[in-house]
């Protein structure tokens, strides 16, 4: 029996059974799919209106029918007021470039925001995520994955909640910027929920607990048969690693690719086509080989409104899709 990625990722929504050991068998060639990581829509958070409605409309305007849903974009914007990632001016931060908050004592307001998030998570019914998933599906938009904040300070109850929310959205894939120590804790949760976890990395080579090097990703994958790679090529290339070589070696374990264009040597995020990330090579490689690897665009450089920048970025990426 062949089990495709789509079978696995929709099993939670359809009630279909999946194998005890997940498979990403690819029995045929696939047409490349381009989506948006909703982190890109962070500029919509402080604007009036329901954020889900705003993201649905933005996707329709961009001609996109697939998203990786960033947890804070379906939470009250006040919970993100002190988040380093929420800055929209393109300035590099420890959080956006290296995978962790700035070093040192965290301000009281940041600590309080973290506790507020914990309380919100545990007080929010999972039924809310079933409704969010229904709204996206009704609009013709697939929630391919739930990008959950799986940090070392998460309680077991929060981890349990994150997996339950993932399945309620109608997907069987969680993605997370996390650490090797957290992956050890999380392995039993992924197995119990029969849910894949895509490991997202950054470019922090100073901290051996971070996912950044090829060896750290391989170490993480070895911890659970439910683990996959949510491969951010911008961070990987900026850290000086062989992006295309790694993709060729590990494509069977890649559940999705994140596109951004960073300068080499840990440089800035740039508009697509102005950095040193091999975007063209990655997109062409995936399409020429017919690999079933969804590609998600991220908007993280200094620029204008998200929809304007994503429209330009999509036009750039589509040039490299093999027809």
First-to-last CA distance? 30 Å
**Sheet having the most strands:** 8 strands, parallel, barrel
CATH topology: TIM Barrel
Q: Into which percentage range does the β-strand content fall?
A: 5-15%
CATH architecture descriptor: Alpha-Beta Barrel
* SSE series: HEHEHHHEHEHEHEHHEEEHEH
Oligomer: single chain
CATH class: Alpha Beta
Average of the residue pLDDT scores: 90
Gross morphology is globular
- What number of domains? 1
Radius of gyration: 18 Å
SS class: alpha/beta
Major β-sheet strand ordering: 1-2-3-4-5-6-7-10
Fraction in helix: 25-40%
Enumerate the spans where pLDDT stays under 50 for 5 or more consecutive residues: 1-8, 10-19
Annotated CATH homologous superfamily: Divalent-metal-dependent TIM barrel enzymes
**Record field, number of beta strands:** 10
Number of helices: 12
Quick summary:
The protein is an alpha/beta fold and 323 residues long. It is built from twelve helices and ten strands. Helix 6 (156-168) links the parallel strand 3 (142-147) and strand 4 (173-177).
């Amino acid at each position: 029996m062949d089990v495709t990625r789509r079978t696995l990722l929709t099993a939670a929504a359809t009630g279909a059974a999946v194998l005890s050991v997940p498979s990403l068998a690819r029995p045929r060639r696939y047409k490349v799919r381009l989506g948006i990581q909703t982190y890109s829509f962070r500029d919509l958070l402080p604007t009036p209106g329901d954020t889900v409605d705003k993201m649905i409309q933005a996707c329709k305007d961009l001609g996109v029918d697939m998203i990786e849903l960033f947890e804070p974009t379906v939470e009250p914007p006040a919970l993100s007021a002190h988040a380093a990632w929420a800055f929209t001016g393109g300035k590099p931060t420890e959080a956006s470039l290296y995978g962790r908050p700035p070093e040192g004592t965290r301000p009281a307001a940041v600590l309080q925001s973290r506790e507020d998030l914990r309380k919100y998570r545990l007080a929010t019914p999972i039924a809310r995520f079933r409704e969010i998933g229904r709204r996206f599906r009704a609009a013709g938009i697939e929630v391919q994955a739930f990008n959950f904040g799986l940090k070392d300070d998460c309680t077991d109850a929060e981890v349990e909640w994150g997996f339950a929310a993932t399945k309620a959205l109608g997907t069987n894939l969680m993605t997370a910027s996390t650490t090797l120590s957290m992956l050890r804790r999380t392995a039993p949760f992924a197995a119990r929920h029969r849910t894949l976890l895509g490991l997202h990395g950054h470019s922090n080579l100073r901290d051996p607990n971070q996912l950044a090097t090829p060896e750290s990703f391989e170490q993480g994958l070895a911890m659970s048969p439910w683990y996959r790679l949510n491969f951010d090529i911008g961070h990987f290339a900026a850290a000086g690693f062989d992006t295309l070589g790694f993709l060729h070696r590990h494509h069977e374990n890649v559940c999705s690719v994140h596109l951004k264009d960073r300068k080499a040597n840990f440089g800035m995020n740039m508009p697509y086509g102005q950095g040193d990330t091999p975007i063209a090579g990655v997109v062409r490689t995936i399409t020429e080989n017919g690999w079933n690897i969804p590609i998600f665009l991220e908007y993280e450089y200094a620029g204008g409104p998200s929809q304007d920048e994503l429209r330009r970025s999509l036009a750039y990426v589509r040039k490299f899709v093999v027809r």
